[in-house]
Amino acid sequence: MEKKRGQELDRKGKASQSQNWWENPIEELDMAQLEQLKASLQGLKHDVARQAEQILIQNLNPPQPIHGHTKHQY
After folding, report:
1. Whole-number Cα distances in Å, 70 to 41, 44, 63, 65, 74
2. Could you give the CA distance from residue 23 to residue 41 in angstroms, rounded to a whole number?
3. Model confidence band, residue 10 (pLDDT cutoffs 50, 70, 90)
């Protein structure tokens, strides 16, 4: 019974590892996984650069107060 439980845990661990292959050491990844990882990292780099640019633009051009209808008190 204990042996079966150990085998089940091993099976679940291997299944989890194959689902989260990117968490494995890079030396253990095959070529397809490396290509997918590379593409994902390039996409992330692009997204981070775009977000940083948006933040920079917002900081250089702070929102201006709206000068519309103002109430004058006399």
Report:
1. 50, 45, 18, 12, 13
2. 14
3. low
